[in-house]
Structures are given as structure tokens and as C-alpha cells.
Write a structure and sequence with these properties.
Number of helices of chain A: 6
Oligomer: homohexamer
Radius of gyration of chain A: 18 Å
Number of strands of chain A: 0
């Protein structure tokens, strides 16, 4: 259960607790999921990863639901079981309905198909698409 | 330039022209990009792929811009040069601004990073995430 | 043009020439493609890789054409441009027709699509499929 | 057990039952595997995916066994556990022996190795391989 | 539990036992892990794979610990659960500390992130980097 | 040449110049490569990515050369042309010899092969490897 084990709040050093507290406050929850407890063995990576995610997933030009669905699309493409489970939960919390999930997966499947058709057929980039 | 070459409209058999015509009408353009011209050597795959994309990318629970950005997120994850170029163009046409592109890429990059941290640390799925 | 450059026959040391000679004799050709010329900077890897491929691609329970098409299917899935180009040529030489290529790509595309649908929907293995 | 759960035949709406019936008739079996039961929450994707697979996997320029082995080769490359299990079963049903499976895996392994050697050494495509 | 089952030492034919014996002698252990027991159904692949690994992982210009960490970096990138577990064990045995593991994973995560940023932004190779 | 173009130093706003200056000072060079010039359209991502890389690639439990080789191993596995070119240059600058490069690639190739053999054969994790 995680290479280095999981660091529970009660056993965490102050710099880890500070990140845990910020995760719970930002997400308005009283719970820390295993990913952070596994990373906590490396407090520098824990902090850097959390600060990056907090910055990236905040509302901006894209809304949080769209961002969570993009995160899920990447995780499904990479077939990361944990990531699919956790980001499906996060996307639902942000408002993803069953119908939206189904359409998201249809796009992900199709993109993975045509990505390989393009490569297999050795299709060259059209002049109009060149930047 | 494409394994089997590109089928231009002038040289295309009727069943291929019918698909080309539908692509141009649906996309409100007078132009066919290389992907379809390469697939046209296999009219059954050309028709099936176009009908699938037409169905999947139509407005539904998700709007066309969100779908194009998801397509682009998958293509960037798979590092498919042609697909990134063509779907960046399609997403821009659907309304993606430079700021939206930049946030999309930030999410794609982060998801690809944490997908591997999760795997490398062998993180087990939390009970709360199990379906 | 290759990280360490290409080793031409005329400049190759005896242990590299011996591999080149065996490649040309086995493939009944008078030509060495760039992959081997790039690997030749590491004669141990050159020999090991060639001996492995020679053993694996020889006729056995599967015929050479089927093996070349499987090689191409993997290369298209991985989107390796060089490998797609070289194994398309090899598969054609072994008898792959345009129609066979088109069906091969259709299967590769579909498999890449359903692989992600399975992951995204978190489908559990059926009891009947368990080994 | 699947993000949206599994739709059993007894609980399925008519358009889903129609697809299930066609799957069982086409495959000459009285059983539906979990993949279809998971997709059934999205009847449009269920139908499209089944119709595509039915068309693609039918005998053509390639026989069904070769197609199943290509499907398995892609699934092993993508490391999709469910897909490997289900397509190993399908390939066996279509006639794949233990010896054929072993040779298939040897080719898949080797292709994945050389795909990366090619990229890592930055090998340029030979003029003779250019289309 | 492995497609073709696991071949235990007691049931193994002489050519398989010879490889098992060499694995145990080389690794100074009295134990064979499941990977080899699964491959043993194909003695030619078992021998070839073992001989290749033995040659590649031996001390050379790179020390065995560095090689094991590279193996682990690839396995984490590919998200191969078995490979991550077995090569984490091997790297630890070769001297990888918890701190080294954490830094290794940080690099793996970052590389996976920037690989996609590069592709998504369609960054062209700098003249100075061209070989 | 990069989706949003490249931001040259002369045209860069102060917050971008500050990052460019730090990159050049840290790397003891007077040159900025295209990756950073492309990211510069999104100063927040530019800064975050640079700060992360600077922290991760600094000497720690692993030396800089080992870290660059791990970065290159991941990039070769993902087949990212730009990343392979730039990190081969960085690894050489950090001391990677031709022999080290060749051994690195041999390990990368082998790991990519066995990762798929493990998946294809559906090998279960040994009890001894479970954490």
C-alpha cells in the first residue's frame, strides 16, 4: 500500500500538516486522499505538487469543471486507474453529469483512435495547419 | 506524403465524394484536410470514421469547444503532431483563446506528471473513490 | 542525423561488418538501413538486437507477414515514425496489400479507442476472462 | 465495478437489448461481457462501438484470427489489463495456440524495444522508406 | 494468474532449469520471481530475455544502481505495476535509499509533464540541439 | 514554429526576462532554448515550470548527471523528439559519454520490452514485491 507507506495527519511533521491543512481548506473537505499521504514522504515534492495543482486548477480562462474533465481525459488516455477514480470523483463534485461523462469518454476514445490512424497512414501536416 | 497517397476530390469515386461533401457542408468550409484524403483509400473506414466524429463532436451535454479541447488534450498526451496541429486549429475556430490554450496545456502537463507519481509511488485507490 | 552518427560499411570495424553481412544475407538485400548504422556505435547492442530480431521474426507458429503486421501495429500505436515507415516497407515486401494495410490500421485504431473506453469506464475483468 | 455500473439484460431498455441480441447472435454466445454492460449507459456509444467493431473484425483481406492477434498486440502495448484478458480469450476462440501467443508476445516486446532505440538514437528515415 | 500459468522449478524441463539456475546464481538468491515463471512456457524467449537482461544490467559505463533506477523510471512512465514493484525491490537491493527514490520520481514526473508541454506547444528543435 | 510563437529576450516583459536571466545564470550560459521561449506566452507556467525544474534537477540524493539520464530515459520512452535532443545535450554537458548513452538506451529499450511481456502474459505481482 504505497511504496513508502502513507503519512497520516497524526504522524505528520509540521510542514506536511501545513500542506494537508491547505488542501482541506481549499477543497472544503476534512479528508486527505492517499496520493498526498504517499507523496508526504518527500515534503518538498508534496508542497511543490500541491502548489502547482492549486494554481493550475483554480478558475481562470477555463472553469474548474472543464479543467477536471481535461484531467480525466488525460488520465483515461494514460490508463491510470487511481487517477481515473479520483478525477472522476472530482469532476462529479464540480458538476459533471453522467451524460457529460459519457460524451467525454466518447471524445477520448475517438481521439485515441484517430491519433493512431494519422500516424499509421503517415499523414503530413496541411500547410494551413502549420504555425 | 501518406502511405497510400492522398485522394483529391477530382479523382475521388462517388462514395468518397459523398463523404467529402458532407465534411465540407457540416464544417461550413470548402476544404478537406489531409487526414480524410489519406483515409479515402479505404472508403469504409473513411465513412465510419467521419460518421463517428460527426456524431461525437456534435453539441450535446458538452459544447463543441469543450470537446475540441478534450481532443487536443488527448492528442498532446499522445504527442501526435498532426493531431495537435489540426485540433489546435479546430479549437481556435470554436473559440479557444490563447489564454485558454495555455491553461489547457498546464492541466495536460500536470496530469501527465501526477499520473506517473501515482504509479511510481504505487498509490492504492481510496475506499471513497471506489465505484 | 542520429545522435552518434551513422556507421557506414566502409568505416565499420570487423564485428560490425559481420552483423551487416548477416543482415544483408538474411534479408536478401545489398542495403543496410539507418537503424542498424546508428546502433553500430554500440556493437554489443547491435549484435544482440539483430540476433533477437532474426530469431523472433523467423517463420514459426506465425508466418513472417503476420509478424511484420504485428510489428507495424505496435509501431503505429506507439506513433514511432521511423518504425512505421520501415515496417510498412517490410510488411509490403512480405506480401501486405493495400487492403490488408487498411484493415490492419482499422483494427489498430479501434483497439486504441476501446482500450481507453475500458479504462475510463473502470470496467472490471469478467470472471470468465480470468486466468 | 464500472463508473456508472453495469446494465444487465433484464434491466436494459429496448435499444440496448437490440445491441446485446446482435452481439450474442454475431458471436454465437449467450453471454455479454462487462465492457458492453458498462457502455450501455450511453446507448449511442454502445451502438456505434459495436457496429464499428462488427464491421472491422469481420473477415476481409485479413482473417479474424489475425485481427484478434493485432487487437491483442495493441492492448499489450497499451497495457490494458481488461483488453488483454478479453482479447486473449477471443484470439484463443479464433484459433490462437499457446505457441502463437508466445510468438505474438515476442514480437510485441521487441517492437516496443526497438521503437525506443530508434527514438533515443534519433534515427532519421531512410530515403528508400519515404512515401 | 498469468495467461499460460507459472512454471515451477520442480516441473521445469532442463533448458528452463538451466536458466533458472543462472538467474539464481547471478542474482545470489534462491528465488525465481513470477515474470520468469510465466515466460518459461516459451523457453526460447525465456533464454533470450534473460541473456539480454544479464548483459545489459551488468556493470559497465553505468553502475548497476543507476541502471536499475533507469529501469524503474521507464516502468513508472509506462505505468507497469508489476515492473514498478519488482524494479523498486531491485533498486533498493542495489542501494537506492528513500531519498533517492523520491528524487527519481520527481524527475520522472517532471519529464512526463514537460514532454507534453513541448508537444502541445509544438516547439521546434533548436539548431544547437540538432545532431 | 511553436503554436503561440517564440518570445525573444528583446521583446519579453519584465517577469519573463527575470526567468530568462535566472535560467542563464543557473545554467551558466548566455542562451535560452525554444522550450522556454514558447512557454513565455504564459508567464505563470513559465515561472512555475522553471522553478520546479530548478528545484528537481539540483544536486541532492542523486547527482545532476544521473538526473539528466533519467530525464532522457523518460523522453526516449515517450518518444518526444525535442526532449530527447535537448536532454541528450544536457546529459552530455553533465558528463555523459558515448558509452554511457549507449548503455542507457539499452536499458530503456529492454525495460520497454519487458514492461509489455509482463502485461501480455498477465503476470501477477509476487508476494515478496508487495509493499
Amino acid at each position: 500500500m504505497a511504496t513508502l507507506g502513507l503519512v497520516e495527519y497524526a504522524d505528520a511533521p509540521p510542514e506536511v500538516r501545513a500542506v494537508y491543512d491547505d488542501i482541506m481548506a481549499t477543497r472544503k473537505t476534512d479528508w486527505i486522499n492517499n496520493f498526498w499521504k504517499a507523496l508526504a514522504h518527500d515534503p518538498a515534492t508534496l508542497r511543490r505538487t500541491w502548489e502547482s495543482i492549486k494554481q493550475i486548477m483554480a478558475p481562470g480562462a477555463l472553469d474548474p469543471l472543464t479543467k477536471e474533465m481535461i484531467y480525466l481525459a488525460v488520465s483515461a488516455t494514460n490508463q491510470c486507474g487511481y487517477c481515473i477514480a479520483s478525477h472522476t470523483a472530482a469532476a462529479r463534485k464540480a458538476g459533471m453529469s453522467d451524460a457529460m461523462f459519457a460524451e467525454l469518454m466518447a471524445v477520448v476514445g475517438m481521439a485515441n483512435e484517430t491519433n493512431r490512424l494519422v500516424s499509421g497512414y503517415q499523414v503530413e501536416i496541411d500547410e494551413r495547419f502549420r504555425v
